Amino acid sequence: MSAPAPHKVRVTREHARELLRQMILVRRFEEACVEQYGAQKIRGFLHLYIGEEANAVGVMQALTPEDAVVATYREHGHALIRGIPATAVMAEMFGKAAGCSRGRGGSMHLFDASRRFYGGNAIVGGGLPLAVGLALADKLRGLARVTCCIFGEGAAAEGEFHESLNLAALWKLPVLFVCENNRYAMGTAIERSESVPDIRRHAEVYGIASETVDGMNVVDVEVAARRAAEAVRAGEGPRFLENHTYRFRAHSMFDPDLYRDKAEVETWKKRGPIVRFSQWVLETGTLHQADIDAIEAETAQTIADAVAFAEAAPPEPVEDLLRDVYAPRPAAPEPPAP
Amino acid sequence: MSATRRITYREAVREALREALLRDPRVFLMGEDVGRYGGAYACSSGLLAEFGEERIRDTPLSESAFVGAGIGAAIGGMRPIVEVMTINFSLLALDQIVNNAATLRHMSGGQIAVPVVIRMATGAGRQLAAQHSHSLECWYAHVPGIRAVAPATIADARGMLWTALQEPNPVVIFEHATLYSDEGEVPAGGEFAVDIDRAAIRRAGADLSLITYGGSLKKALAAAETLAGERIDCEVIDLRTLRPLDEETLLASVRRTHRALIVDEGWRSGSLAGEIAARIAEQAFFDLDAPVRRVCSAEVPIPYPRHLEEAATPQVDTIVAAARGLMRR
Ligand SMILES: Cc1ncc(C[n+]2csc(CCOP(=O)(O)OP(=O)(O)O)c2C)c(N)n1
Ligand SMILES: [Mg+2]
Q1: Architecture of domain B200-328
Q2: Where do the domains of chain A lie, and which CATH numbers do they carry?
Q3: Is A271 in a helix, a strand, or coil?
Q4: Same fold for the domain at B4-187 and the one at B200-328?
């Protein structure tokens, strides 16, 4: 494991266990989603995070509960690690009112305002301006908080990406931009969509300090995210991380995955974040097989509880269809005197 | 009757694309994942292998840029077919379509033609939640300078594209995403092209004009079947072209049946259904035996759970109920 020199973290036994537990939670949750999709309990689009777990887990270590998160439709992992209970996330996938978005959003629109988790955005690039605005509010209110904005490399081609980076840099706003570069936007490989595939260089053009990170290595991600978040929190303006990662599964459940080499997928799987980290903790004696077995058992129970909870939760009555379109309004002011 | 073949809507779109590419060297297709991936709805699968990267162009996720580039290429002498994956993402290209494609001819005093064709999937019905379920066709149909069409049948999916490519004006084609796997008849060979001017009477009837388009046509036809069992004889009109509206066909039908029920997956407020109702009121008021009725989507972003999505959008039973109400049954 290669932790970058300037910011070497000491991975204690407790911390190693927690990192591994979180990655395994995300992995097993996603596997359960596949199963529930097969059972037609989860419908619509379903974008899995399998293979990319080190990114959500590493980045979230650097955030405090006061910070904000803006993510995409591939956000189940981020939601779980942010602390939204697996029960509420699974119930959302099932479209139940007990879900974290009352079932109205489904897999692509997980929200939890109490945890400052602002979605769950299914328009590519749509989250970036929002994150800039959240950070602007913090700056105007004098709050030393970070808004962490997570998106795929595909978003870097959108105008909203460039407009948001420029604005955040121009106004020195506290945004931590995290590009999860998994090399593909649906079926389009990055080389075929970016004239400069080195995404961090786009950030640098706007004067944003950036870093490329091994997104398959949870400790590397954590170290880079802590460093960047500290700078953002200290008022130094936005920071940008480009995490190199890979999705092991198809883009969504509708994707036949015919555009990439099976061998390429297999090569990346060998570098899988859970496999590698498990190996490292075992080899260094940080954890033992019994620890990993315990994590697996504990996680299996969490997932089983989440599925049972989602299954048992009642559907929302149709009479409530029109709720939550507008907020209840305060009483109207007195009409002006004639 | 001449010979026909059964194909899916998706195959019809693919055949139409292929025919256009074969017949006119100026035609090229561009959009997100139209090449390697074969199109988000598999409408262009196989075309990259046959026509190559120059003519089947995968674009980055840059709706404003590639739609605008399609408009520019059309002005520059090509005949681009631009695929926007869905209407939801077309909002990022709305500026190019509304401020450039629709206006350039007029602003230039008639000097500039914009013969671009922009295709996009539209509509709800697949549990994709609010950001992926919009029916905003009426936003485009609102804009002078644009021709907006909605092929609701397999034959129209097969035939409208070529006609659209012959237009000297920008044409936006809306393909309802629930239609792609449906099957239907197209001519076995020969000419497929169909007009993009006239509404079509999909079912003749005497008691009530059921006016609709796109993904709602099959629901309206199913409702008409049910209603026939109750001896309510519906005439089902498929608008086909949303702008300009074929008033003649619409009004003639209403004058025969004296009742109009409009089915539109758009939200009721500011809908195309509202426009049609207004035209009927303006021009056929004294032919009506009952007030015009509408079945539209409820005024709520489309929710994810199936039962709520169904409750939010027009369904066969809500159409049937509205028709009964109109007939005072
Ligand atoms: C504006 C917009 N255009 C197109 C789409 C359709 N779409 C959904 S995800 C996706 C690929 C995005 O790739 P990337 O940003 O790299 O994220 P990843 O899925 O790899 O995590 C596309 C094209 C969309 N949702 N929004
Ligand atoms: Mg990607």
Answers
A1: 3-Layer(aba) Sandwich (3.40)
A2: 6-206+213-306 (3.40.50.970)
A3: coil
A4: yes
At the fourth CATH level, the homologous superfamily of domain B4-187 is Thiamin diphosphate (ThDP)-binding fold, Pyr/PP domains (3.40.50.970)
How close does chain B come to A149, measured CA to CA in Å? 18
Any catalytic annotation for residue B63? Answer: yes
Could you write out the DSSP letters of every residue in B237-285?
EE--EEES--HHHHHHHHHHHS-EEEEEEEESTT-HHHHHHHHHHHHHG
- Count of H-run helices and E-run strands, chain B: 13, 14
Ligand 1 atom closest to the CA of A47, numbered from 1: 19
Round to whole Å and give the CA distance between B304 and B155. Answer: 32
Give dist(CA B8, CA A75) in Å, integer.
34
CA distance A198 to chain B (A): 15
d(CA B219, CA A39) in angstroms, rounded, equals 27
Distance between CA atoms of residues B310 and B303, nearest Å = 9
SS3 of residue A243 by DSSP: strand
- Tell me the C-alpha distance between B183 and B185, whole Å: 7
Residues belonging to chain B: 329
The answer to whether the Cα torsion of B166, B167, B168, B171 is positive or negative is: negative
Residue of A207, A71, A228, A67 lying closest to A137 (CA atoms): A67
What DSSP assignment string belongs to A138-177? HHHHT----EEEEEEGGGGGSHHHHHHHHHHHHTT--EEE
Asked if residues B181 and B299 have their Cβ atoms less than 8 Å apart, the reply is no
Tell me, yes or no, if B32 comes closer than 8 A to chain A by beta carbon. yes
Ligand number with the minimum distance to the CA of A152:
1
> What are the structural domain ranges in chain B?
4-187, 200-328
Structure tokens at B93: 């290209």
What's the A185 CA to ligand 1 centre distance in angstroms? 6
Burial label, B103 (beta-carbon count in 10 A; 0-12, 13-18, 19+): middle
| Averaged pLDDT in 10-residue chunks for chain A of 338 residues | 50 97 98 98 98 98 98 98 98 98 98 97 98 98 98 98 98 98 97 97 98 98 98 98 98 94 97 97 97 98 98 97 94 83
Dump strand ranges (E) for chain A.
Answer: 68-72, 117-121, 147-152, 175-181, 184-185, 188-189, 209-214, 239-244
One pLDDT digit (tens) per residue for chain B, 329 residues:
578 999 999 999 999 999 999 999 999 999 999 999 999 999 999 999 999 999 999 999 999 999 999 999 999 999 999 999 999 999 999 999 999 999 999 999 999 999 999 999 999 999 999 999 999 999 999 999 999 999 999 999 999 999 999 999 999 999 999 999 999 999 998 889 999 999 999 999 999 999 999 999 999 999 999 999 999 999 999 999 999 999 999 999 999 999 999 999 999 999 999 999 999 999 999 999 999 999 999 999 999 999 999 999 999 999 999 999 999 88
- Interface ipTM: 0.95
